[in-house]
Amino acid sequence: MTQFTFEKTPNPISQERRQALLQDPKFGRVFTDHMAVIRYNDEKGWHDAKVTPRQPLPIDPASTVLHYGQEIFEGLKAYRGEDGRPLLFRPQANAARFAASARRLAMAELPENLFLGAIEALLKLDHEWIPSGEGQSLYLRPFMIANEVFLGVKPATEYLFVLLACPVGAYFGSGCVPVWVTETYSRAAPGGTGEAKCGGNYAASLVAQMEAKEKGCEQVLFLDAVEKRYIDEMGGMNVMFVRRDGTVVTPPLSGTILRGITRDSLLKLGRHLGISMVEEKLSIDDVFAQAQSGEITEAFACGTAAVISPIGVLKRPSAIAQFGDGKNPGPVTLRLREALTTLQRGQSEDPFGWRYSVTL
Hints:
alpha+beta, D-amino Acid Aminotransferase, Chain A, domain 1, D-amino Acid Aminotransferase, Chain A, domain 2, nine-stranded mixed sheet, 29% strand, globular, BCAT-like_N, BCAT-like_C
């Protein structure tokens, strides 16, 4: 493991308080005692890797991230394995995507060994924060910002990498999610930053998310920015549909859709289970028509935070598409969710070598 120095917090949260917080952790609201930090500049490269008490970051008001938005992040989870050790799911894929996002935003690339080393170092101190309840995990949030003190439109020469961790429960509730199809806003355009996991993409989606809330929906689905005809992705996750014959269909990667690791895992896992998994352009008109005819019977969102969340209805200004009874997940959705979650938690065979066990 990469050498990290450790500065333990002098005021750790008590075991009793931690156990109380782990009973029902709200997503993104409760954080562990520590964070991992690594610095970069053009002269030294990556240096000063350490785990410190979680605390506010001192940042100059002229730091370039505040003015030109050079910022990227990732999301992955640690689970408590059957032997009690932390289990990660495909963290190398997150490291590769983090590097790809950095390239797109002209930022310094963090090597995989540092990405994985930061996770292992943080878990060495905070592994007791991993909850073991149904649907619970320790969500890991690595992010990187440009922190050169300079006003000018150019790539920064200094960066700060930080890793936070927070215990979480389910992102959505147990039922089906209603989703709004926005015909007003676009998430990403060809040649843009759609494939990069950067804050600007999510900030740009918030107004559409507000529109969805006003329509009584929990999430928003975006169409392509050119024709406003083809399904792209949702505000923070990919989307898949199930046809009457059991085939699972998802839009192909086109440069505007995030290369979801859960999406990729489901495509491979579904094929391993004998399910036909297809990447195909889907027009929103066809999806609505096929939902009405019964050709499409299920729909679900997929992503690290959401895992697999069934979609009950899609709403647009002119129509509503319902999948199944609109309230309960369908059999293919349930089968894929069970296969994925048991694999992630070490409760089933791992034919792909995706699990990554952390030695404490």
